[in-house]
Each structure stands twice: as C-alpha cells, then as structure tokens.
Amino acid sequence: MAGKQQQRLPREVRERQMIDAAVRVFSQVGYHTASVEEIAGAAGISKPMVYIYLGSKERLFTACIHREADRVVETVRAAVHPDEPPELGLWSGLRVFFRFVADNRDSWTVLYQHARTQGEPFAKEVRAARNRVIAEITAMVVAGTRMPGGERIVSERDAEILARIAIGAADSLSDWLLEHPDESPDSLVDRVTDLALVGVERYNTGDLPPS
Amino acid sequence: MAGKQQQRLPREVRERQMIDAAVRVFSQVGYHTASVEEIAGAAGISKPMVYIYLGSKERLFTACIHREADRVVETVRAAVHPDEPPELGLWSGLRVFFRFVADNRDSWTVLYQHARTQGEPFAKEVRAARNRVIAEITAMVVAGTRMPGGERIVSERDAEILARIAIGAADSLSDWLLEHPDESPDSLVDRVTDLALVGVERYNTGDLPPS
Amino acid sequence: MAGKQQQRLPREVRERQMIDAAVRVFSQVGYHTASVEEIAGAAGISKPMVYIYLGSKERLFTACIHREADRVVETVRAAVHPDEPPELGLWSGLRVFFRFVADNRDSWTVLYQHARTQGEPFAKEVRAARNRVIAEITAMVVAGTRMPGGERIVSERDAEILARIAIGAADSLSDWLLEHPDESPDSLVDRVTDLALVGVERYNTGDLPPS
Amino acid sequence: MAGKQQQRLPREVRERQMIDAAVRVFSQVGYHTASVEEIAGAAGISKPMVYIYLGSKERLFTACIHREADRVVETVRAAVHPDEPPELGLWSGLRVFFRFVADNRDSWTVLYQHARTQGEPFAKEVRAARNRVIAEITAMVVAGTRMPGGERIVSERDAEILARIAIGAADSLSDWLLEHPDESPDSLVDRVTDLALVGVERYNTGDLPPS
DNA sequence: CATGAATGAGTTTTCATTCAT
DNA sequence: TATGAATGAAAACTCATTCAT
C-alpha cells in the first residue's frame, strides 16, 4: 500500500544527487522561487529526505555554494598548477576559466548570480566562497604575468583588480555567448586577446591617459 | 475610525517616493524577500497605496527597472554626447560609467543583479532594459575609439564585447571599491587604464597570443 | 485643477440614480463581488457620494431590496385591484406577475436570488421584503379564486402555498424563458394554464392521489 | 515546533470531510462570506489542507456543486427507476424530490441558491449541474405522466416546464415548510396534489382560460 | 530508511470606509 | 457639494518544516 520507496543508496550518493538537482533548480528559478518540493522531485526523492540529509533549505543552498565554488577553484587550479611545472600563461588561464563559466551555466548562475543577491542568511558564506574564487583567479593572474625571469610585473592589488575584471567579464560575456551561437569560449577569448594586445594601444592615441 | 492619515500629496510625488523606496529595499534584500509592506513603510505610506498606484509588486519592480535603466542611459548619454561637440574619449566615458555604478549602488544592484536573477515574469522587461544599457555603452565605446580622422578601429561586434566587459567589470569592481575605501572610482579607472596601456603589452611577452 | 465635478442634482434624483445603478450592478455580479467603486462609477459619481447619501454598502443594498420589493408589490397590486372593481382572475394575475419577473430581470435577480443568499446582516430586512411580496401574491390568489358568488374555495394556508409555488415557478421559469427566445411570458402562462386545466386531471388517472 | 497534528487520515476520507464542511458553511453564509479558514475549521483541519487537496476555494466550491448535484440526481433516479420496474407516478416522484429538498437544506441551498448567484468563474459548471438536475426531474415527469397504455400526454417541452415548476416550487416551498413545523414534505405534497386535482378545475370556472 | 499527512507563519492583494481640500 | 488621497482589516494562497507510520 505504501508508495514505492526509492532504492536505498549510500548517503554520499544521495547527497550528491540532491545537490545536483538543487543547483539545477536554483539556477533556473532562483533561491526563493525554488520550492523544496520541486528540488526533491528533481532529485527523485521525497521532501523529508532533503531535511534528513541536508537539514534545511538554507543549508541546502549553502551546500550548493560550497560545492560549486570548489569546482571553479579546482578547475582553475588544476589548469594553472598541473601536477607538473609548465605553468600556463595568462591567456591560457583565462581560457580555462571562461570555458568553465560557459560550460557550467548552472554552477556559475547559482554561484555568481543567485548567491550574491540573497541577503542576510547567506552573506557570510557567500563572501567566503567568492573570496576563494577571487583568490584563485588572482593567483592565476599572478602566475600568468611573471616575466620570463620570474619577476612580477603587477602588484598584488592590481592582480586582484585584473582577477575581478576577468570574473565580471566572464559573467557578462557568457550571456553574450548565449546570444551568439556562432562563437565559442575560445573564439571569444581570442577576440578579447586581440583587443587587448593590438587594439588598446592603438585606439587610445586620441585620448590621453591620465598622466 | 481610520487612523491618522498621511499628508496628502499629488500622485506623481507619491509614485516617485514609492519607486525610490522600492529601489532601496529591493537592492538590499532582493525581490522576493522584500515585502510590499516593508517597501510601503520605507516610503512612509501604507500598503494599499502601492497597489492603488502601481498595481502589483510585479509592476512595482518593473517600474524600478525601467526608471533605473533610464537613469544609467541618461547619465552615460549626457556625458558622451553633451549638447556641444567634444565627445569624450574611451577612458573618460568609462570613468563616467564607473562613477555612476559606484555612486548609485542601489540602482545598479537592482538593475544588474536582482533583475537578472528573477525568472519568468520579468525576463522580457529585463532583457529590454539591459539591452538599452548595453547599447548605450556600446555607443560610448564606438564614439571613444574612433581614430582622430574618424575611422572606426573596432567592429560593431567587438565594440559590444568591450561594452559587456566594461559592464561586467564595473559590476565586479564596484564590490572591490567597497572593500577598499582608500580608492575611488577615478583612481580605479586610472589603475585599469595603466594596466591596459602599459601592462598588457609587456606582461604578455612570455605568453604567445593566438596567432 | 479639480476634476470635473458632477452637476449638482437634488438629493432625491441622485439617490434614485445610485439605486438604479446598484440594482444593475448587484444583479450582475452579486453583493460581495460588486464594489462600491464600481457602483459609483455606474452611477456616474464618485465613491464618497455613495457614503454621503446612503451611508454604507449595506444600507445601499437594503435600499435596493426595499425599492424593488415595492415595485413588485405595486405592480401586482395595481393589476389586481385597479382603482375600480373588476378584479382579475387568477390567470390574469399570474400573467401580470410573470411579466414583471421576465421584464425586470435585474430587480428580480437582486430581490429573489441575491438578497436571499446573503447571510446575517440582511436576514431580517430580506424576510420582511419577501413577506410583503408573498402577501401580495397571496392576496392575488385569494382574489383570483373566489367563486362567482364570492365564496372562497382555497383556505388561507393553501392560498399562500399557491402563492409560493407561483413565485418559485416564476423564478425558475424566467430562466427557461431566457433559453427559449421563441416564447414569451404570455405564451408561457398559456402553456402552464393548459397544463393545469387540461393535463392535470388527465395524466393523473394512472397515479392514485393520496386518499 | 509544529503544533499538535490531527489524526492522520487517508486522503479520500479527508476530502469528503472537507466537502461536507464546505457544503455546510457555504449554505449558511454563501460563497464569498465563507472563508476558507472557517471551512477548514468546520472540517477539523487547517487551511493548507484544503489547498493541498482541493487546490483553491473555487475548486472547492465546484466540488461541492458536483457532489450535491450527483446526490439529487441519484436520489431521484433511484426512486423513479428502482432496479425493478414499477415506475413511480408523478406525485410519488415529486414526493421523493420534495423530501430530498426538505431533508437536505444545505445541499439544496448551495446547489440551487448560492451556486446560481455566483458569477463568472462558475457559470459553466453551475449550468451543467443544473441541467443534470433539470433533466432528471424532467425524466421523472415524463415517466410519471404516461397513460396506462404508455402513451405520452405531455410534450418534451411541457415536461421540462413542469420540471422547472417543480424545482422552483420545491425551493420556494421548502422555506414555507420551515415556517410551518406542523407540516411535513409529505403533507405538503398532499396539499399540492389536492389543489392540483380538485381545485384547479373548480376555482377556475370564473376565469376564462385563454381560448 | 522513506514518505504521505499535516500545519504555523507569512505574503500578496482587495475593499469598505474616511478625511482633507 | 464633491472628490482624490489614504488606510485598517481581512481574505486567498504558499511554503518550509515536522510527525506518524
């Protein structure tokens, strides 16, 4: 008489299923609009399971933020510091990062767009997650901008600024990518590179930079 | 039997007050978390007034989006195309835009961060508002990158990419500004300019740009 | 600057306008669904006027009930007791009553259908109004069923029963009339008369009436 | 933290309880005046349950209409077409119908009085329900007015008119019954029968029926 | 472990009614 | 007199969360 019960799975697996589903749903409709029931449904389980495993909607969202921040950080770190030396240059690093953002819309949307806009209960957690991402991208910038000899040519502060620009640009440009299916993350980075290398110095001639 | 009534003000004034309050509250807690009552309170009136004048929470939010999009567009347009000639160069234009974002946190937060993350009911309106902003910044980029002779050196597509980068960067960097009270929008643009002009070509030597 | 004000009309006229509008609106959507604003609009005046003249929505509805009950009673009375003798027979009286119901949908709907279904605040008023109508129809039945010599052939109690049947039937059949535009109140009464006179005794042969 | 919960009952049972309570409450105060909370209270459960099971106040009302229409139809049908032949005569059928109306005030009030007066959202459903009832009573009239040999003596149209009269009369007379506790549905039908059989032909002599 | 049943708390929305001009 | 501006009170509906089985 009881409705069919889900197969018993080890806790770890179940949790991953839930967070996967939650990221998917949250990214589509946002934290408030997503109901726990909807998420449970998307994970193929019943509502109380979410509470048993994750405790509350808030904790579930937090778990999503953590996991997705981990994924960004891991991805970038793995590319920039592969187990063995040859560190990537700046543009190669950016390419990896852009590709992640473009290929993982749900992750990025939850992490960068939704998490940010939630107020109090998450402020702290979100800041921490963001800082981890920023730190990682900053590290990538630092690594990518050393002179052949190893000297740094951008200060820590400037490196962070560049990291933030990269993050904001990735976010903003990933929308552009969606609207331009004829382009790819790679072709986009190429464009940006060209603009930075060639364009900047040239189109700037008529506009005196601050002395 | 009715409680003491507010001072009577003409509709136009009250509507502006409401939208002001709504932008403030929405920017702080987001669309869903903000209750109409809270907004009414912040505007110094009672809830039903919001419904009498604006119709619904949804329409109120839409009104905020429209007005704030207008403000960004107006600000940028006024700076770039002053009634009289001397158009601004790229960096001067960016400076105006950055300043707006930094000086109007609430507007920008609602427009760029919150509006985006709201799903269906707003998708269309938001897209329209965003496109207006993008178009304006793109125009600024185009205007700011002409050669002295007037020839364009960036294609339309690239101009829009630069505009999107500027927008994403402004958004991202305005957070950075908050965390660095010793800096200002102007000093920040100076840094970015320096990085773009001087840095790019130099720190790139070790990393071959795509051929 | 002030919106155009309605022409000043004597109180009596204004009140009639309001009640006319109210009957119209109430009959269409019912007491609760009708908003005072809607009624004021239908009467071509502003909301506060309704309160100044009638005091409250409740009193406005009560006024409608009274007036419409008066109209039914007057109509029937005028037909049955014309200033001078020749009283009408039963069927002629019914014909008058049916015609009123059919020709005054709004009045009847408010009086018989809506007023009835409103609970407490109106119970008493409604009962009184209904009783006046019932009394009048009963009087008509009594008048219409005297023998040529003047003796009564239906008891008071039976006369009231017949009156109630007539009222319920008029209500029920006026719906039927709406669905059968090829018929008229008169043709309907003819049918009913035929059924009563000819049919009843005949088709009843196979079904023994209670001994 | 949640208050004490009601005994757990299967959905089917709860739904019936809700509709029972709703019919009771709606019949007493009408659709608009009845609050969902009040109905939930009358059913011994909390408001959200009504929404979980029935979806909306509108759907709840519709469910009431359907169920009560079913009950009238079933009652009449069962009496008129018992599993085995001897169909009832007209008066016996009416007696069954009158008894239902008198014994099920709430059902009848909701079905005939309240449902009618509700405008748009219900118009269609109500019409359908009413038509089912009318059709059943009409069938009863047809069955009850056949000659011993089986020939029909009333046309379809006239049968429906008689059905409508019966319905309107039942509605109207059931009020009368309430005011006359010394009478019963049966005694009332007896009176009506007498009036129809004996009275009609007699008291009519002085009033010429239409030629 | 898993889930159907149940609810407290809160939100948007509407409307009769009043007041200031 | 007449009306635009304003609000208290209440109703429909939703949802995170819990408990009994």
Overview of this structure, please?
4 copies of one chain form a homotetramer. The first copy, chain A, is elongated, with a radius of gyration of 21 Å. The first copy, chain A, is built from 9 helices and no strands. Mean pLDDT of chain A is 86; it is low at 203-211. In chain A, helix 5 packs across helix 9. Chain A is 72% helix and 0% strand. Chain A has a domain at 57-193: Orthogonal Bundle (Tetracycline Repressor, domain 2). With 211 residues, the first copy, chain A, is mostly helical. The interface between C and D is large, with 61 and 60 residues. Chain B binds a DNA duplex (21 and 21 nucleotides) through helix 3. Chains A, B, C, D: It holds the Pfam family TetR_N. Chains A, B, C, D: InterPro entries: DesT_TetR_C, Homeodomain-like_sf, HTH-type_TetR-like_transc_reg, HTH_TetR, Tet_transcr_reg_TetR-rel_C_sf. Chains A, B, C, D: Residues 35-54 bind DNA. Chains A, B, C, D: This is TetR/AcrR family transcriptional regulator.
CATH T-level fold name of the domain at 57-193 in chain A: Tetracycline Repressor, domain 2
Query: Percent of residues of chain A in helical segments?
Result: over 70%
- What's the tally of helices of chain A? 9
Which protein chains are joined by the largest interface, and how many residues does each one contribute? C-D, 61 and 60 residues
Whole-angstrom Rg of chain A: 21 Å
Global mean pLDDT of chain A: 86
Strand content of chain A: under 5%
Oligomer: homotetramer
State the end-to-end distance of chain A: 81 Å
What is the CATH homology-level superfamily of the domain at 57-193 in chain A? Tetracycline Repressor, domain 2
CATH class of the domain at 57-193 in chain A: Mainly Alpha
Q: Which class best fits the helix and strand makeup of chain A?
A: mainly alpha
Order of helices and strands of chain A: HHHHHHHHH
CATH-level-2 architecture of the domain at 57-193 in chain A: Orthogonal Bundle
Low-confidence stretches of chain A: 203-211
- The total beta strand count of chain A reads 0
Largest sheet of chain A: none
- Identify the overall geometry of chain A: elongated
